[in-house]
């Protein structure tokens, strides 16, 4: 996954120090984009261990998105990754699946003359069991349109947009969607997926985001019988967390020296020297113990990412999946094959 490594390098070399809502500071950069050819294998990172618990969490998370649930009551039995942002009942202030599968439709006087709104006759509209109001299944619309009878009009549509962004939700929400919209676009007989992400935690969130959308593209390719094309990813605020308090602030004073060191790196191994320079010079961080075979880099993600840059990416694994409809997608129906990785490393999540 050279594309991920290039992204990390570009942000470390060209980013600037930025404080943010969390107590953990960042090295951030505006506007990054890359494409991954999904026909060349499944883009699961190999420079840290992404199978076992991370693969499981990502897969349960995708199953949860597709379920349309706005709560994590079932998800939290499988993984804790969303627990910090949910209330005691497991409800979330913004949930991707709720918008992907059950986007609220204005009703009655909320519809102005001349405006076009799908009605209850539409195959993608239903009266929601939970709210009793009309909701729209964006993903169902995408799949059915791709399977439409007239390829030029249907599968070639340039309107296959799924949005998790509801302006009236995002202001008050404690965590508005980060990967907030994607577009499916067929070119030369191949299905491509373009994701726009407003805010991207490069070390922790992005490896999950790539894995989840690459798998979603595969799911859509299976159920529509259209060959898999590319995953294309736009990141607006692309950031690497660099620690709390003195540790984070050390980067504000030492970023240009750090970036001079990076500018002199000529081989992968030299990233380890820069990592060691950071570990020797930056104020120490308290980190919790993790299992043997793993190393916890704490809230400063920079040294761990430098270690990843020093490692050679291994061959991409494959995913086995055989489904005919969206409803058949489940944890049990997917298997990861031929995955091999470097040893594990951990980072703490900025909340
Ligand atoms: N700072 C931050 N980064 C994120 O990536 C992120 C948020 N916040 N808030 C909301 C969601 C939740 N997501 C998360 C949350 C936690 C992990 C995490 O703890 N990952 C660990 C362990 C994974 C596991 O238990 O399976 C990791 O080492 O990857 C990953 C993504 C992505 N999002
Ligand atoms: O799928 C996800 C979800 C979240 N993130 C990251 C991006 C940011 O570091 C935080 C969200 O904080 P905001 O202040 O709301 O931007 O979570 C991610 O990378 N991927």
UniProtKB/TrEMBL annotation:
(6R)-5,10-methylene-5,6,7,8-tetrahydrofolate binds at residues 201, 350. Pfam families: Thymidylat_synt. DUMP binds at residues 21, 158-159, 198-201, 209, 239-241. The active site is at residue 178. Keywords: Cytoplasm, Methyltransferase, Nucleotide biosynthesis, Transferase. GO terms for molecular function: thymidylate synthase activity. The keyword Nucleus does not apply. Residues 3-350 form the Thymidylate synthase/dCMP hydroxymethylase domain. It comes from the Archaea. It is found in: Cytoplasm. GO terms for cellular component: cytosol. Its EC number is 2.1.1.45. Homodimer. Catalyzes the reductive methylation of 2'-deoxyuridine-5'-monophosphate (dUMP) to 2'-deoxythymidine-5'-monophosphate (dTMP) while utilizing 5,10-methylenetetrahydrofolate (mTHF) as the methyl donor and reductant in the reaction, yielding dihydrofolate (DHF) as a by-product. This enzymatic reaction provides an intracellular de novo source of dTMP, an essential precursor for DNA biosynthesis. This is Thymidylate synthase. The lineage of its organism: Archaea, Methanobacteriati, Methanobacteriota, Stenosarchaea group, Halobacteria.
